[in-house]
Amino acid sequence: QLKRKKMINLVLFGKPGAGKGTQANFLKEKYSLKHISTGDVFRFNIKNETELGKLAKTYIDNGELVPDEVTINMLKAEVEKNLDAAGFIFDGFPRTTAQAKALDELMQYEGMQVDATIALEADDEVLIQRLLERGKVSGRSDDQDEEKIRNRFTEYNEKTAPLTEYYKKQNKFHSINGVGTIEDITERLSKVIDSLVAVNTMKDK
Ligand code: AP5
């Protein structure tokens, strides 16, 4: 129980292409956290042609959100597999109010909480360029054309952006400039995380 108290659980928030996955890869090493990317789990399942993959594929290909029930069950299973972690970085989850509520319930049930949600901010045009570039190299089905990318932004604006208010009400919302070098952005994120760790340490004393 003592270990769980000292855990730090973060939500990395932001539009498609904001740099959530890129930054999570650095932060997970730096703070020894378990990185859970719902997009990566879906893509792994699509590649391996699992039932979950088959369910998710059409939505992802069209730049639409996978239904909440499917996504929430998958996320719960990922968290429960990793309860020995020192904390979590959630990347791409939650994306709807129902998902945010489910995450709060799950965290509470497991004796944890979301400590902070940190948004990476960048203009749409910057993000579209990043994603079109990646589409050329990675072949990600949802990065292939601008129309699909814009559809992901529409989904974000309609369903995900309202979570800003959800976390602001809980005093857990932080946002940083997501434009600059990858190192600079890691530095900006680290400042926010270090201040959270300091507060958590003081509370434990
Ligand atoms: P997901 O995989 O989460 O995709 P996304 O949100 O669209 O995010 P991306 O991976 O495109 O962007 P990112 O912010 O991680 O940026 P990245 O670091 O990769 O979701 C895919 C789909 O799965 C969804 O559309 C949905 O269908 C489904 N899904 C997933 N979660 C779901 C959920 N919770 N509910 C329902 N459905 C869900 O960077 C992007 C690019 O930019 C890279 O090429 C990177 O190298 C580059 N880059 C990063 N940082 C910089 C920088 N500072 N400067 C220049 N380039 C940079």
Automatic annotation (TrEMBL):
<protein>
    <recommendedName>
        <fullName>Adenylate kinase</fullName>
        <ecNumber>2.7.4.3</ecNumber>
    </recommendedName>
</protein>
<dbReference type="GO" id="GO:0044209">
    <property type="term" value="P:AMP salvage"/>
</dbReference>
<comment type="similarity">
    <text>Belongs to the adenylate kinase family.</text>
</comment>
<feature type="binding site">
    <location>
        <position position="140"/>
    </location>
    <ligand>
        <name>AMP</name>
    </ligand>
</feature>
<comment type="function">
    <text>Catalyzes the reversible transfer of the terminal phosphate group between ATP and AMP. Plays an important role in cellular energy homeostasis and in adenine nucleotide metabolism.</text>
</comment>
<comment type="pathway">
    <text>Purine metabolism; AMP biosynthesis via salvage pathway; AMP from ADP: step 1/1.</text>
</comment>
<keyword id="KW-0808">Transferase</keyword>
<keyword id="KW-0418">Kinase</keyword>
<keyword id="KW-0963">Cytoplasm</keyword>
<dbReference type="GO" id="GO:0005737">
    <property type="term" value="C:cytoplasm"/>
</dbReference>
<feature type="binding site">
    <location>
        <begin position="64"/>
        <end position="66"/>
    </location>
    <ligand>
        <name>AMP</name>
    </ligand>
</feature>
<keyword id="KW-0547">Nucleotide-binding</keyword>
<keyword id="KW-0328">Glycosyltransferase</keyword>
<feature type="binding site">
    <location>
        <position position="134"/>
    </location>
    <ligand>
        <name>ATP</name>
    </ligand>
</feature>
<dbReference type="GO" id="GO:0016757">
    <property type="term" value="F:glycosyltransferase activity"/>
</dbReference>
<keyword id="KW-0545">Nucleotide biosynthesis</keyword>
<keyword id="KW-0067">ATP-binding</keyword>
<dbReference type="GO" id="GO:0005524">
    <property type="term" value="F:ATP binding"/>
</dbReference>
<feature type="binding site">
    <location>
        <position position="38"/>
    </location>
    <ligand>
        <name>AMP</name>
    </ligand>
</feature>
<feature type="binding site">
    <location>
        <position position="180"/>
    </location>
    <ligand>
        <name>ATP</name>
    </ligand>
</feature>
<comment type="subunit">
    <text>Monomer.</text>
</comment>
<feature type="binding site">
    <location>
        <begin position="92"/>
        <end position="95"/>
    </location>
    <ligand>
        <name>AMP</name>
    </ligand>
</feature>
<feature type="binding site">
    <location>
        <position position="43"/>
    </location>
    <ligand>
        <name>AMP</name>
    </ligand>
</feature>
<feature type="binding site">
    <location>
        <position position="99"/>
    </location>
    <ligand>
        <name>AMP</name>
    </ligand>
</feature>
<feature type="region of interest" description="NMP">
    <location>
        <begin position="37"/>
        <end position="66"/>
    </location>
</feature>
<feature type="binding site">
    <location>
        <begin position="17"/>
        <end position="22"/>
    </location>
    <ligand>
        <name>ATP</name>
    </ligand>
</feature>
<feature type="binding site">
    <location>
        <position position="152"/>
    </location>
    <ligand>
        <name>AMP</name>
    </ligand>
</feature>
<dbReference type="GO" id="GO:0004017">
    <property type="term" value="F:AMP kinase activity"/>
</dbReference>
